[in-house]
Design a protein that fits this description.
The strands form three sheets. Strands 3, 4, 5, 6, 7, 10, 11 and 12 form an eight-stranded mixed sheet that branches. The model has no long low-confidence stretch (mean pLDDT 88). The protein has three domains: 81 residues, Arc Repressor Mutant, subunit A (Orthogonal Bundle); 100 residues, Periplasmic binding protein-like II (D-Maltodextrin-Binding Protein, domain 2), CATH 3.40.190; 108 residues, Periplasmic binding protein-like II (D-Maltodextrin-Binding Protein, domain 2, 3-Layer(aba) Sandwich). The N and C termini lie far apart (53 Å). The protein has eleven helices and twelve strands. By secondary structure, the protein is α/β, with parallel strands linked by helices. It is elongated and about 75 Å long. The longest helix is centred in the first third of the chain and has 25 residues. Helix content is 43%, strand content 23%.
């Protein structure tokens, strides 16, 4: 039995779509179909029910899937144990992070990791939280860093840092409703808001916390949506509007007196950042990064 056939079967069964599996595995759809065909011939059974619009596993396919999950776990553990026999941790490590974490937190840590593990080749993808979750599930990254809780059984999620969203406004172009350090919730809806895009962790946290107080994001006067925090800060500094973003991202501007922060009275916009990985044996490089990162956060955050 070919291990590659099993890996292709596992992804096809997970995605329930040969085309989607092909994209993740960087194969053509005919190649995926051929892998499945060879596996079905070897086992002398049909693994997928293709008679419905949505491809489903047959009973035999369901049995195989449960075994393949265990086989992949064992292979990962084998590779990890063999790797640990060498003197150093090496290999590729693919990280994915939300914009806030990828631009303002992780870069300060990456240098320390590379110094300690010079034989690990690091890559970092920065995107919004929803995209990072999808790329983790698709196997395109090994570890993810996101801004929202994710109750998914196939993902391990570890909160590592508390963050807070605050209203930011320009010091050079002050907004009359933001003269104080806090505002009443009802004033929020008259502010010209420059918002993050759909799918961003910041926007999801803002929406969920407003709903806890019977307030809806649609009630906000959103005049513009931007996909990058730096663009939002520049727009706010120039007086185009105000925004609600992570306090983690504005420390420099606060120190330089370019931006002012304001909180909403009676509404907490605190949240956690999360480190996520698929529930399987991690590679030595992933394990080392996760352990060193959590240790560093605990030592540097008071």
């Amino acid at each position: 039995m070919n291990l590659e056939h099993l890996k292709v079967f596992y992804m096809a069964a997970t995605k329930k779509n040969f085309s989607e599996a092909a994209k993740v595995l960087h194969l053509s759809q005919p190649s995926v179909s051929l892998h499945i065909k060879h596996l079905e011939q070897y086992l002398n059974t049909t693994l997928f029910d293709r008679s419905t619009k949505k491809m489903e596993l047959t009973h035999a396919g369901t049995i195989l899937f449960s075994f393949v999950e265990q086989i992949i776990q064992l292979v990962n553990q084998l590779e990890k144990d063999i790797s640990l026999l060498s003197d150093s941790i090496h290999g590729d490590l693919r990280l994915g992070a939300s914009l806030t974490i990828g631009e303002y937190l992780l870069p300060y840590f990456l240098g320390d990791f590379i110094k300690q593990y010079p034989n690990v080749h690091l890559s970092l993808l920065v995107d919004n939280s929803n995209q990072i979750i999808e790329k983790l599930l698709d196997g395109k990254i090994d570890l993810g860093f996101i801004e929202v809780a994710i109750p998914r059984k196939e993902i391990d999620s570890l909160p590592f840092l508390e963050d807070e969203l605050v209203i930011i406004s320009s010091v050079r172009h002050p907004h009359p409703d933001l003269a104080e350090d806090t505002i009443q919730p009802e004033l929020l809806f008259s502010l010209p808001i420059i918002a993050r895009e759909q799918g961003s962790g910041t926007r999801q946290v803002l929406e969920s916390n407003l709903l806890k107080h019977q307030l809806e994001l649609d009630q906000l006067n959103i005049i513009m949506e931007l996909g990058h925090t730096e663009s939002i800060k520049s727009a706010v500094e120039s007086g185009l509007g105000v925004s609600i973003i992570s306090k983690t991202t504005i420390q420099k501007e606060l120190d330089l007196g370019l931006l002012k922060q304001t909180r909403i009275k009676g509404i907490s916009l605190k949240r956690n950042f999360y480190l996520i990985n698929r529930k399987q044996v991690l590679s030595p490089a992933s394990d080392a990064f996760k352990e060193l990162f959590i240790t560093s956060v605990k030592e540097n955050v008071h």
